[in-house]
Each structure stands twice: as C-alpha cells, then as structure tokens.
Amino acid sequence: MKQKKLSKSVERNHPKTTVIGVSAMVIGNIESDSLVIIDGGIEGDVFAPEALINGLVNGNIKVSQKVEVAKNSRITGDLVYKTVIIHEGARIFGKLLHQDGQD
C-alpha cells in the first residue's frame, strides 16, 4: 500500500513515533508520550499528544494536541481532541469532543 503524505506537520521518521503498520492489528490500549500513527488496526483505546489515523480503530482516541483522520480511516469510538483534521471520506462512528487547554 502506497503511503500518502497527509499533513506537513507529521514526522513519520521521528525516533519516538509509534507506528502500527498496515499489516498489523493491535489488541489492547496504546499509551504514548509522542506521535502515534495507525496505518493498520487497533481494538482498544489510544492516548497520545498527537495521532495520525490512517486505518481502523475500534475504541476511543484521546489526544491532548492534534489528531488527523485520513480519508480511508474508520473509527468506532469517541474522539477527544484539541485540534482535529478530518479528510473527506473518513468515517467516525462516535462523538467528537473538543477539549480546550484545561485538563
């Protein structure tokens, strides 16, 4: 599968980036203190400062900063964010919950 560059701010090659590859499926939650990129799938919740969703998520996503949802993404769960980018064609089955800077 050809990787599409989505946002200019996404640093896929940063050493602290957590990447779930196209052929991977994670069962369980992901907690990270850096960018999380999901190209494959996850059955669980995601907690991170930033996330790029380019696959399937069956769980809630909570980011303290920015989340980008690609056009082929499918999220079944709530999305909590400070800043969100949703590409045309993305599917979200859950609530979009904006959080301001006050946790």
Mean pLDDT across residues: 88
Helix content: under 10%
- Output the radius of gyration: 12 Å
Number of helices: 0
Largest sheet: 8 strands, parallel
Would you count the extended β strands for me? 13
Shape: globular
Give start-end ranges of low-pLDDT stretches. 1-6
Describe the protein.
With 103 residues, the protein is mostly beta strands. It has a domain at 29-98. It contains no helices and 13 strands. It has strands spanning 18-20, 25-27, 30-31, 36-38, 41-43, 46-53, 56-58, 61-69, 74-76, 79-81, 83-86, 91-93, 96-98. The strands form two sheets. Strands 1, 3, 4, 6, 8, 10, 11 and 13 form an eight-stranded parallel β-sheet that branches. The protein is globular, with a radius of gyration of 12 Å. The model is unreliable at 1-6 (pLDDT under 50).
